[in-house]
Amino acid sequence: MEYTERKRLLFFGLPWTFTKYTVKDEMITINTGLLSTRENDCYMYKVQDVELTVSLWERIFKMGTVVCYTGDTTNPKLYIEHVRNAKAIKDFILEASEEARMKRRTMNTLSIDADVDLDGNGIPDRLED
Q: In the 3-class helix/strand/coil scheme, how is 20-86 assigned residue by residue?
């Protein structure tokens, strides 16, 4: 499955911008620019969380913005701005990213209090059981 959307103007929701979003099973691609173009890719397995935001103007013109929080070094946040079918795109990214992590057998973990400096000497202390 694949979604291809264009960034739209917030006013009337017309696709008069030169930004194109392509969301596939394995990758998210953002193409921007007219004369000088830029292409940014992010593999699905790097997507850690997805957020949907809808402003009043976006709601009026049936659009939304999808924010992907990634483990990518070049773009830790990918914004898919002012697109139609934003809810469907968000749900697709959530499912596809989970499937991609399962295929690659990768896992996202949080390291809570891993480097704790209890005595304040600047050296992380090891917690004993």
A: EEEECCCEEEEEECCCCCEEEEEEHHHEEEEEEECCHHHHHCCCEEEEEEECCCCCCEEEEEEECCH
